[in-house]
Design brief:
The protein is of the alpha+beta class. It is about 15% helix and about 30% strand. InterPro entries: DUF6266.
Length: about 210
């Protein structure tokens, strides 16, 4: 793939001969046309495809969270989804092909240097999850009461995500949200991270563990 510098005719858009011109974030690109191969994939290619598919399948449904959590990572070159994919791919795959699984404890939903504070263990009771966090502001990191607190859960058996209906603030100190009936009796992995009001400064996410919903 080549990058085009605007000339007197500007960038190329669409198919031109054997190449396709496109633009992303004001950067013009030239890409060769895809050529379908009749050769069977090698084992190495199958392994790579399986790894890519497993990680991307997890990340795609939580794109809105990644837009905050990875929105500042190589923003001039990568989408938040691709930044999260590149970050997590070397870390979260475990097992051997074709039985790869994800190590959820290593999965990062956000990455940054903003202050999160020490994580606290979630509590499940009466079909509700409660998550609490440190409300204390940090002068060095310039945290504020209206910093957003992002919480997300993943139910592996049902392959579903669960989160509070709205984003609480640092000053709230806690949030409680219900668990749908069809998820009860299982277990969820949970993560938390924080971001300032403008979503420009973001903490790294903290894995809160595996919580039994029973």
């Amino acid at each position: 793939m080549g990058t085009i510098v605007n000339g007197i005719n500007g960038g190329i858009s669409g198919k031109t001969g054997s190449v396709i011109g496109s633009s992303w974030k004001s950067i013009n690109y030239l890409k060769g046309l895809y050529k379908k191969s009749n050769k069977p994939a090698t084992e190495e290619q199958l392994i790579t495809q399986a790894r890519f598919k497993l990680v991307m399948r997890f990340l795609l449904p939580i794109t809105s969270y990644l837009q905050v959590g990875f929105g500042q990572k190589k923003a001039d070159r990568l989408t938040p989804l691709n930044a999260a994919f590149q970050f997590n791919l070397p870390l979260v795959i475990q097992g051997t092909y074709p039985s790869f699984t994800l190590d959820y404890s290593k999965m990062r939903i956000a990455d940054g240097a903003f202050y999160l504070g020490p994580p606290r263990a979630p509590v499940y009771a009466d079909e509700e999850l409660t998550v609490s966090w440190d409300m204390t502001n940090n002068d060095i990191y310039k945290t504020a009461d209206d910093d957003g607190v992002y919480i997300i859960c993943y139910h592996p058996d049902q392959d579903e995500f669960l989160a509070p209906a709205s984003v609480p603030t640092r000053s709230a100190g806690t949030v409680t949200f219900g668990v749908p009936t069809h998820l009860l009796g299982g277990e969820v992995h949970m993560w938390i991270f924080m971001a300032d009001r403008k979503k420009k400064r973001v903490s790294k996410s903290s894995y809160l563990g595996l919580i039994q919903l029973s």
